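Let's study today's protein:

:::
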Amino acid sequence: MRIDIISIFPEMFDGPFNHSIVKRAKEKGLVEIVIHNLREYSENKHKNVDDYAFGGGAGMVMMIQPIDKCVTQLKSEREYDEIIYLSPDGELFNQGLANSFIEYNNIILLCGHYKGIDERIRKHIITREISIGDYVLSGGELAAAVFTDSIVRLIPGVLGDETSALSDSFQDGLISPPVFTRPREYKSWKVPDILLSGNDKLIQKWKLEESIERTKKKRPDLYNKD
C-alpha cells in the first residue's frame, strides 16, 4: 500500500511515522508513506497556499491551484483508489471503515488548515471526506496520522501476531475484554482464576461475557446499535 499525504507542515509526521508499528511496516516494505509539502506546488512567488475568503469572514482559505497541481502530478504517476480530505464534517471514521481500506493500493490524504479548503476542491478533486471525531483540530495532520496508523496496523504481516488486530476493540462491535500479565498477584490484586485454568473454551466464553458487560457499561451506544 502507498499513502501520499499533502500537507503544509510535513515535519509534523516525523514522530508518528518513524517509530513503532508504522516504522516497522515501512522497513518491511509493506507500506510506503510519502509526504508532499504543498508549498512546493504553489505558483505564487511567495509560495503562499492560502488567501482571503470571497464574501468576507474571518480566517484564510487554502487555494485550489497548489492542491490541484499536486494531485494532478500524483495521478499522472499512478491510479488512486481514493483522494481523501480529512475534515470535521466528513464521514465519521470507525473500525469498520478502517478495515475497508485494506484492499486499497494507493490513497491520497489532504490535510486542511485555516478555515478549510476552496469548495471547488471538494467538488471536483476530492473523492471522499473523513472525520476522526466531532471536534475541530488546528489542522489535518494529526487526523492523517491517526487514519494512517489505524489502517497500517491491519495490513497482513505488520503485526507480529496476525490475530492481534482481529481481537481489538470494535472489530466485532464490542469493547475488548480486560487483559492481565505477570505477576499473578500484586498488592493482593489477583488475576481471575479462569485465565490461569488452561481451559481455552471457558476462557473464550469468559472473554466474550466480559466484552459484552464492558460494552454495556462503557459504550451503551454500541451495545444498543442493533
